[in-house]
Each structure stands twice: as C-alpha cells, then as structure tokens.
Amino acid sequence: MSTRRQFLKQGAALALIPLVPAASLTAHAAAKVPLDDPAAKALRYVEDATQANRADKMGVAASDQVCQNCRFYVTTDAGAAWAPCQLFQNRLVAGPGWCAGWVPKA
Ligand code: SF4
Predict the structure, then answer these.
(1) Taking the mean position of all CA atoms in its chain, how far away is CA 88?
(2) Which ligand 1 atom lies nearest to the CA of residue 71?
(3) First and final CA of the chain: distance in angstroms?
(4) What is the DSSP string of 20-66?
(5) Most ligand 1 atoms within 8 A of CB, residue of 44, 45, 46, 89 to mutate
(6) Is any atom of ligand 1 closer than 6 Å to the C-beta of 82?
(7) Which candidate, 59, 80, 72, places its Cα nearest to that of 100?
(8) Are 45 and 32 in contact (CB under 8 A)?
C-alpha cells in the first residue's frame, strides 16, 4: 500500500534524475572511428574492406569479411552504411569496412 508520503518521496527522487537530451546521446553515439585512432590502427581498421590485407578466418573467406556481417556490428539493418561497433566502444564503423577483430555473426 502506497501512502501519500511515499508517493511524494518517489516523485522527488524521480525529479533528481538528470534529463539528458536525446540529441546529445545521438551525437555522442554518432562519432565515427577515426582511421588514425590508436585502436583502429592496432586492429588495421579500414572503411573499405577491399583495401585490407585479410585472411580466411573461422571458415569465412577473406573476401566475404566486412563489418556488416561481423558479430560486433550492432544494428538490425544488415545493409546499414554505418553502425556502432562494440570493439570500438560503440563508435560508428563503416558497413563495408573491416578490422582484424572481425568475427562472424552467430
Ligand atoms: S570488430 Fe567487426 S564491426 Fe568492428 S570494425 Fe572490426 S570488422 Fe568492423
């Protein structure tokens, strides 16, 4: 049973939750991985997989490996041109890109 006092306390607690504009979340999430980023260099990330020196991996031909079919490419749109990559702290990577961390989607 909820009393009026409990209701007011819950309302006050909710009022303390900072309101983050959705636009700022989108802007943060929309940052692309720069090609000169140290992690990108370490993983040999490229925005065009055909420019990468790939090798067959986990039974998948090198030429078939792109971000769009990587486990770390986070999107429900298989053909998305850009999407967050879990390996790069959810910054955007190019769908036709590739890096050495490529793993096939499960
Ligand atoms: S981990 Fe996968 S999605 Fe992320 S950059 Fe490398 S190949 Fe692309």
Answers:
(1) 7
(2) 2
(3) 46
(4) --HHHHHHHHTPBPPTT-HHHHHTT-BSSGGGS----BTTB-GGG--
(5) 45
(6) no
(7) 72
(8) no
Low-confidence ranges of the chain (pLDDT < 70): 1-29
Domains of the chain: 31-94 (4.10.490.10)
- Whose CA is closest to atom 8 on ligand 1? 67
- Per-residue confidence (pLDDT) for residue 38, from 0 to 100: 97
* Share in percent of the chain as helix, strand, coil (round to 5): 35, 15, 50
* Closest C-alpha among 86, 93, 10 to residue 49: 93
How buried is 54 (Cβ within 10 angstroms: 0-12 exposed, 13-18 middle, 19+ buried)?
A: buried
- Cα separation, 95 vs 54, in Å, equals 16
**Nearest residue (CA) to ligand 1, atom 6:** 99
Residue 52: CB atoms within 10 A of its CB come to 19
